[in-house]
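Researcher: Here's my situation. A collaborator sent me these components and asked whether they could plausibly form a single complex. I don't have experimental data yet, so a predicted model of the whole assembly would be a useful starting point for our discussion.
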Amino acid sequence: MKIAAWNVNSVRARAERLVDWLASRDPDIACLQETKCEDHQFPFELVGDLGYEVTHYGQKSYNGVAILSKKRPDEVIAGFSDGAEEDASRRILWARFGTLWVASVYVPNGQSVGSDKYQYKLRWFERFTKILASRPSDLPVIVGGDYNVAPADLDVHAPEAWRNQTLCSEPERAAFELLLAQGYTDSFRAMHPDRQAFSWWDYRMLGFQKNRGLRIDHWLMNHVAYAKCTSVEIDREARKGDDPSDHAPIICEIDQA
DNA sequence: ATGTCACATCTAATGTGA
């Protein structure tokens, strides 16, 4: 099973590229982040024509996550659904396919260290950590998306310039590590311990052309899922060309009964 | 030196968010 996660930075602005990409990569499941639209604005027909079911948890202007799948999910959970008041930002969506749970996640950006949005990001991580801890450990669980954290210096093109900046600060890295402590593996890093590869490049200053990037998009997998994982790669080609998202997709393969 | 995008709004240039 080929399963992708991609921050598309507006599904409407990226609809044509998304369709081309789906047609060429042919994933069984694609988790999208930053769809930036309400449910009725999603380009259902375009992806439907390619044979995908669409599960969307979106809102006006910002945020929004989706799961496209060739099979209809057996169960869906939108939001934290942890009994507390639902977050106004729509950033997390789960779908179950048989025994496999898949999540599409868009962690808050955090703006600048110490800002209100940064505090919100850390609080969001706390809640997210509890959710991951509550997922079954005896069945496969994979959680893909934009974590807005570069876990280590190897994941940063200029570690010293980024030291203690948003996406790289120690509290953010500690929050990411705490996710792993719940029984999850950073699958790309586990597959490629020494490889420097990025998933996001700033639009400004020829960031992509100069390969000034960060690895902030991840596929976290619980141990059962990672044992079935045969490949995790970043689809750098999808960042090239005209009108790209600023993120590249990350694509994993899971052996599936 | 605030650069490039996408979105929204009193549809034109400005604010917000990333």
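Model: Some features of this prediction you could bring to your collaborator: The first strand of chain A starts at residue 2 and ends at 7. Chain A has one domain: 2-254.
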